[in-house]
Amino acid sequence: MRLNNKGFAFSTMLYGALSLIIVILLLVFNLLKSNNDETYYYSSIIEENLNKCVEEEIALENCYSSGNNNCDTTAYYACIGVKNNTIVEGVRLIEFLKDKVVTTGNGLYEDSNGNLIFRGTSVNNYVQYSGDVWRIVEVEASGIVKIAYTKYGKSLKWDAEGNSEWKNSSLNNELNNVFYNSLQNNSIIDQKPWKIGRIYDVVTTLDELIDQESQVLYSSTDGAGPVGLLNASDYIRASLNLACSSDVLNSTSCSSWLSSYGGWVLNASNLSEGEQAEAYYFKIGDKLTKKEITETDNVIPVVYLKSSIKIISGDGTSSNPYILER
What is the tens place of the pLDDT at every residue in 54-112? Predict the structure, then answer.
């Protein structure tokens, strides 16, 4: 078949277009293959790291399950970056502290939910943050760290106008504007909801107290600021006295490391018609009680730090507080 100039030009364009399509298909195929290879590679890396310390962890769990309280943790903690209770490399604070859990006396306790809580009258829970020394109240099972600035040293009204809603209180406004703006490295603060549920006078046990506090959560979607106060339950859980946790509103034996830092807590009292607005506070010494919110009391600002926070150095003592990764 003979082609004229127009036919030749058309066939040339057709072959050119087909060639271009084939090239594009080949590039797409190679790209997909490359992505699959890369995905497989990174999946392999993730799987390898997830399984990195499984054998050591299982061996340690089996040891503890046998009833042995003196299991050798060296292999497991060396695997995750801790050796002989010293920091080998930056590890998450919760991973480092788990090796310091005790079952008697002053120290760090683990509750049934996996949360780590400092209990007793003398504990090494000092941590450096924002250029000063704070104290660790709790490390949640997720790794989120609750710290309190016990050196704040101000006595303020819970609310100057008698408003018993925390989110509208003058104290909330003071902490989340003036105080928060004074903090350094606030990028590591976690916006965890605050438990601001009212405390009913019928509350008796620690579990009932925690349940009432959790009835109302004040989150960032509600306009919550990053700074809050201790909950009433924080004071109760810090005590080693069982009588304290079994009669939370009446016990006068809730002494702990927090006792000397008494002050307002987040939770207001349950109100009846005609009553003055009241909020709970921990009386310096060892008792949880309440008074009108237009009165003044000690203030202890509290923030949550992100679960990814890592420890660099320190042993938690006042002279050598934990230093966190910035």
Answer: 777 787 677 767 766 556 665 666 565 554 455 545 789 999 999 999 999 999 999 99
Contacts of 221 (CB under 8 A, 6+ apart): none
HEC states along 285-316?
CCEEEEEECCCEEEECCEEEECCCCEEEECCC
Contact 91, 81 (CB under 8 A): yes
Torsion of CA 203, 208, 209, 213, to 10 degrees: -120
Beta strands in 82-213 (DSSP E): 82-83, 86-87, 91-92, 107-110, 116-119, 126-129, 132-139, 145-148, 154-157, 189-190, 194-195
Integer angstrom CA distances of residue 189 from 90, 175, 185, 270, 292: 18, 14, 8, 30, 31
The one-letter amino acid at 56 = E
Q: How much of the chain exceeds pLDDT 90, in percent?
A: 59
Burial 280-292 (b: 16+ CB within 10 A, else e): bbbbeebbbebbb
CA distance 113 to 141: 7
Please name the residue that has the structure tokens 């002279």.
Answer: 319
CB 220 within 8 A of CB 191: yes
User: Residue 36 pLDDT more than 70?
Assistant: no
| Coil, helix or strand at residue 33 | helix
Here the tokens at position 48 are 């390898």
Please tell me the distance from the alpha carbon of residue 123 to that of residue 132, in angstroms, as a whole number: 18
Number of H helices, E strands in the chain: 8, 19
How is residue 276 written in tokens? 């003055």
d(CA 255, CA 120): 8
CB 264 within 8 A of CB 298: yes
